[in-house]
Each structure stands twice: as C-alpha cells, then as structure tokens.
Design goal:
The protein is α/β, with parallel strands linked by helices. The chain has helices at residues 24-27, 31-35, 56-62, 75-88, 105-118, 134-143, 157-163, 170-182, 200-213, 230-237, 261-279, 282-285, 287-295, 298-317, 323-337; strands at residues 38-41, 44-45, 71-72, 93-96, 123-126, 145-153, 186-193, 217-222.
C-alpha cells in the first residue's frame, strides 16, 4: 500500500468456498475459550448501513468495486461449522456476532427451521430495530433464540438520525421492544454517549429511552474518535478533537473530546450507571437518588458496573460455569487490573 491507497483487490470471496475456521489454534492456547460452553460464531460478513460511529461505512467504500459487501454463509455450511464445534468442544450456547444477524429474512427462516433440529442449543444474536417484525421474531423464537441485542444509540432523534445516521425511528424502537416481549425473547440494549454536538439534555433523553425499552440489561458506551470514522471527522470540524491524539484503551476510560471536566465526569458516571437507571427507573427519576449516585467515585461505580454485568450476563444467558473455569477467569481478570 502506498500514498494511502489500498492495493487492487480481488472479488470478495465466496464464504462457502472457504475452509472452516481452525478453532483448535485458539482453543489450544486459551483454556477459557476452550472450556467455555458459550462460543462465538459469524454467519456472514458485512453491514449495509452507514452509521457514522462504525467502521462499516469506510469498509464498504473500500470494497465498493467488489460488488455487494454483505455476504452470508449458506445455512448448510453454517450448520456444519456449528456441528464440528459441538462434537469437539463444550457447547451450550451459540453467540452470533454478526452486526445484524437478521439482514436476510429468507436466510433467517431457513436457518431457524433447520437449526433446532440439527444443533438444538439456545443461540443469541444482534438485530436492528427497523428489521424486527412479528415474522422474524416468531422464527427466532422457534429456532431457539433466547436473547437478542439491539442498539438505541441515542434517545434524541437529531443525534440518532442526523449525527449518527442510524435512520431508525422512535416508533421502530418501541415496536421492537414490544414484539420481542410478545414472543418471550429477552433483549439487551446499547447506546453511545459523548457524541459530538450532543448535550446533557440529549444524554438524558437516551437514559429515558433505555428506561422505556425495559431491556434485561442496558449499556452506554462513550464515543471513541477512531481514525477514519465520519463521526471523528465531525468532531474535528466542530473543534472537539485534534487528529493525532492518543486513543484510550477502552470506552470506560472516558471521553477524550474537548469537553470540560464536569461534563466528562457526567459522561463517565452515566456509562456506569446506565444499567441501574434503566433497570430501576426510580434511581434516575428521583432527584435525591440521582444526585447521590453521581457523587459516588467513578472507580466504585465501575466496579459495581462490572459486577452487575457479570451477574446479569450469567442470568440472562443462563451460562453455566464450572468452578475451575470461574477460577481461571478470576485470575485473568485480576491480572488485567494491574497491567
């Protein structure tokens, strides 16, 4: 690569013509991944949407000459990949990490019909509010889907659709929550805060949107201005970010945009408190309770957040962890704190 240009690329590969992932390479080196009964898969690659905070808009532009960038493995290929893992490793829950698992409804209907008969363990996936219908939810439920994750991103329509380019209406989000409850599918919601030109009032609308969604667990991630994102360019244009700044190692550290200290502190604590606010609304809507919670040191709130995330994940996904695996995970977590 030179002059910032990518070399000529061949057509994007046919996923069905590729060998199955060699998971043994990873599982032999990582006991947690090998012993865990919760394993991740990808049923396809690519996303057609142009959200400004996500890499996909840049990825799609890079490969636009290769044709349609959204590709799915055939149902039979995907089922064979799952079967190989199920035969060789512990598997009680399948997690599909595709950006939008339900992008192809015809594929979803075929997959769900065959999956229950051939694999038969619960699965979880990511969905998008504008694609969730009664038909899709019914198919997911029948196929064994127990939990889905979807994004609110912002409760404020201007931020959500003009700044983040989600193109998702409030009505679609409300309908998604209603449909998923109707079919008994648990769901988690995610949001992004600390967005350029977003105000404190906009963030408060996001909290209210998560409360209204009544999810099993809600999160709020602080925007990180990675290079190449349209939202990063927007942050530069409005004077909130200077190119070349060092990136934080996670979105838990806090915003690196040029906000004042009190607002940065508000964003950080809101990220930690979102699960509590969304799950127990009076803690946010009662003024004295909200004021008290924002007085708690960030480190304490983060520890509480991580504990609640672990407990809720185990409860929502019904993950069974052996004492041996729990010990190994605890040791690795403690080591990560001192790095």
């Amino acid at each position: 690569m030179r002059d910032g240009q990518f070399p000529a690329l061949a057509q994007l590969v046919d996923l069905d013509k590729q060998p199955f992932p060699d998971r043994e390479l990873i599982y032999n080196e990582d006991r947690i991944l090998r012993l865990s009964t919760f394993k991740a898969f990808m049923s396809g690659r690519g996303c057609p949407y142009k959200c400004t905070y996500c890499f996909n808009h840049a990825y799609n532009e890079m490969f636009k000459e290769c044709g349609h960038v959204v590709r799915k493995k055939s149902v039979d290929y995907m089922l064979e990949e799952l079967s190989i893992v199920k035969r060789n490793y512990p598997l009680q829950l399948v997690s599909f990490q595709d950006d939008t698992f339900i992008i192809d409804k015809k594929w979803v209907f075929e997959f769900c019909e065959k999956y229950r008969r051939t694999i038969g363990v619960p699965f979880v996936c990511n969905v998008r509010p504008n694609l969730v219908t009664d038909e899709v939810a019914a198919a997911l439920k029948a196929g064994g889907c127990t939990v889905v994750s979807w994004s609110i991103e912002s409760g404020n329509e201007r931020v959500r659709n003009k700044v983040l380019c989600r193109n998702v209406s409030t009505e679609q989000m409300d309908n998604t929550a209603s449909i998923l409850r109707k079919y008994g599918i648990k769901y988690r919601t995610a949001s992004v805060i600390g967005v350029p030109t977003e105000t404190k009032e906009d963030v408060e609308e996001t909290i209210e949107a998560n409360i209204r969604a009544s999810a099993s667990f809600s999160t709020a991630n602080i925007f990180v201005p990675y290079s190449g994102l349209r939202l990063t360019e927007h942050a530069v244009q409005v004077g909130l970010f200077r190119k070349g700044q060092e990136m934080p190692n996670s979105f838990f550290v806090g915003s690196i945009l040029s906000y004042d200290k009190p607002y940065k502190n508000f964003l950080r604590k809101t990220a930690y408190l979102m699960p509590l606010f969304a799950g127990v609304p009076w803690t946010y809507r009662t003024k004295w309770a909200r004021s008290f919670l924002y007085l708690i040191p960030s480190l304490v709130l983060r520890m509480c957040y991580e504990f609640s995330y672990l407990v809720s994940s185990k409860s929502i996904y019904q993950i069974k962890i052996s004492p041996t695996l729990a010990f190994i995970m605890a040791v690795r977590y403690l080591r990560s704190l001192v790095k």
